[in-house]
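ASSEMBLY PREDICTION REQUEST
Request ID: AP-0331
Submitted by: J.K., bench scientist
Number of chains: two
Total residues: 941
Priority: normal
Notes: Please return the full assembly, not individual chains.
Input sequences:
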Amino acid sequence: MSAGPGGRESVIGAACWRGLGCGRTRVVGLLGALVIVCASTSAAAQASFGRSKSLADTRLELPSAAQVADVLLLREYNTRVVVIGTMLLGLGAGVIGTFLLLRKRALMGDALSHATLPGIALAFIVMTRFGGSGKSLPGLLLGATIFGGIGVACVLLIRGATRLKEDTALGIVLSVFFGLGVSLLGVIQKMDTGSAAGLESFIYGKTASMLVSDAKLIAGAAALTVVGCVVFYKEFSLLCFDESFARSQGWPRLLLDGVMMAMVVMITVIGLGAVGLILMIALLVIPPAAARFWSHRLGPTVLIAGGIGAVSGWVGASVSALAARLPAGAIIVLTAASAFVLSMIFGVRRGVLVRAVEQWRLRRSVARQHLLRAMYEAEESGAAAAGVGEGALLRARTWSRRALRGGLRRARSAGEIEPGDAGRWRLTEAGRAAAARVVRNHRLWELYLVTHADIAPSHVDRDADELEHVLGAAMVEELELLLVRDESRAVVPASPHAL
Amino acid sequence: MNWSSYDTWIVLTGALCAGACALPGTFLILRRMSMMGDAISHAVLPGLAAAFMLTGSRGSWVMFAGAAVVGVLTALFTQWVNRLGKVEESAAMGVVFTALFALGLVMLVQAADDVDLDPGCVLYGSLELAPLDARLFFGTRVPRAALMLGAVFLVNLVLVIAFYKELRISSFDPELSTTLGIPAGMLHYGLMTMVAVTTVAAFESVGSILVIAMLIVPAASARLLTDRLWLTLALAVVLGAGGAALGHVGAIVVPSWFGFADTSTAGMMAVAAGAIFALCLLAGPRHGLVSRVVHRLGLALRIAREDILGLLYRLEEAGDLRRARAGEVASLMRSAIGGGRAVTRIALADLRRRGRVTLRSGELRLTPLGREDARKLVRSHRLWETYVARHFALPPDHLHPSAGRTEHYLSRDMRRAIEDEADLPKRDPHGAPIPERTNEPS
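STATUS: Completed
Returned structure:
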């Protein structure tokens, strides 16, 4: 289980880097990662300090303290609008994104936001045809919403009616709809009426030039999303965690799904104009994925995801206000991505470090119990009245001398063993009691396998070796009731096989 | 429209792109990684930017290498986030490719402010301009893009043929492939490299959107048409090429219907591929929606026919022929079996046409042929009830619904098998006689 990364890397290396004639595949794989990390940190450094060390670039200058203060305190009107707008967008997207992620539809936002493009283009064409300006925001948003809805419906249709899986359905809708959008944009570019210059911003975003009306729109959408998630909190969580239970309880599953998707469509469509297509996807996916490392509970996860989204929006907008050449949308995503990397490493619930520590602890405790059992069994066989030697312990199971010595040292400081004569070791009273418990678990399980699972006595040791560490008190009691019929309950049963 | 060699080259380039993409795309679909093409084609942006920053040139090979390396790294990072962080695969993909894309945007703005590396070009490509950049190849001027995509197509074809068995086993049954000693991880990254190289080679000329469409859509269409892997691959290539041709024609023709000028070829190729997919979705032979609806209707009709026959048989048995009027039967059908009025009427007409039932002065009668069919059905029904009653501790009123379903598909062998059980009673649990076996022809 824990051996994953090492094995993976070497496989990766073999596959990808063989062409380069590199033997130390793992090193190269890591080097590649390092290059990217360095690049991203240098970009982040440029972002946060505005200090440029890049090749040709000298125009990016360190903003003065007054400028920084202006931005951080939101003194400028324009900055205030942009920062508040992006923060709210991050909040709303993070909240609804959490449900999307738990519903295993993280990339739905991707397909959805691509699918809005033909709607935008079509709305533009229709509005110019009927003599409008073609760029009225409500019209474009309506078109985007309609096609976003159609896109989601197509995904659900393809997934439900064919044997193609969700990922394929997403890919089909995404590319075909976007292709349609590109074709329509191509038509618009050659139309003689009106210019399509503003439409591109739906793909790349125009965060820095956000207007008050945009910010208000985002605020409304974010508020609606948050309220919707609060109102439907129970229903959504039921849908995310146990869909079939929700169905059996008579909840209108399709309707609830529709409400959830409608909120995703709304926040996506409104966010598209603000941060652009790719970055909108990021806001829906990254903060929730990061928040999952911090909590096992849904409520806190939703809050943390919203928080990460909001902070990313704030940092990104502020940084880009200070350094005009850093695109705000990209900085928002990079901030969120940094938060993700930090969460993945340091997250207190599912983070890599926490899990590594847990595994290390488990290995420690298993090793301790193995040592105790080895000591106990050696003493039990009678040959070691004067204590057990290292050599005998080494033969008892496959462990290295170093691991054994470390175990002995720890057991001694825990007061479980004491030195005997001539470098031998003896169990103390406390140690013997602890060892007896382990041996008892081991043998109870062996007995159970022999008597109830018809496994040969010579084959039960290995299985019991793993289970002895995890048998709970209740389980042990049950085994006792089942197996130990005489009065000797408190005593360690005899081993069913030769030691 | 005026077709020229120029158009032919555009279609050929598109078709080669479709062929090159469809081969790895089929395996992406089978491995449920369809979005990988999307992820890679977005994530290569920092690779392009880094290649430019490091070398200061826009040389095609440098860019190609940079993009391909980052493409493979995308797959690698996704795997890391997925395994190490235990994040669901599609979410991991989303995290990685958006972050890389954002990084690429920042790098691009820093490094290449005055260089024509505009994201629009990456998105839409410039398929229309492909024939302008031509090279001499065996005496003919061939577009560079066509040469490159042709080469990628050939390499992919050779690789797929060479590793066909391994790819097939590991795509359909990863556990089996592991036990057979096929290195699944190696194949995974090999395939990812193939996707990355194909994507990068293709989007330079045709744009990333067309790449994603060509990776997934023709392969998905082919998958709806056939169950055989080699046929899926072949069909995917053919359908993709067809989509390319259709798309180019469509880009010129379709807008003119609405009085517009022509439009983006790459976009229309994606749309054409989508149209072909929709066609397969509707009209596919076994998995198509239409054939499934027809099949279900046929089944519903057959069940209704059999139910009517069974009903008439029981009425005959009870000597209750006065009720065997057409209207009466319809309402009986509705109350007893729940069949719709329309289905019942069609089924009745069908039965008369087949000579199973006659209608004289408003009364329905079974013909000898019809009686034989009905007998078989009722036999199945009562045999099944007897069998279930004997072997499962079910109350008598629970037997009927199960038998009502089973009677329609109980085969002759099954009837015989039940019948051959020792001391089969002559009557079913409700006391109705089980019809004797005749010389069952079917």
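REVIEWER COMMENTS: Strands of chain B lie at 134-137, 140-143, 357-360, 363-366.
SIGN-OFF: pending second reviewer
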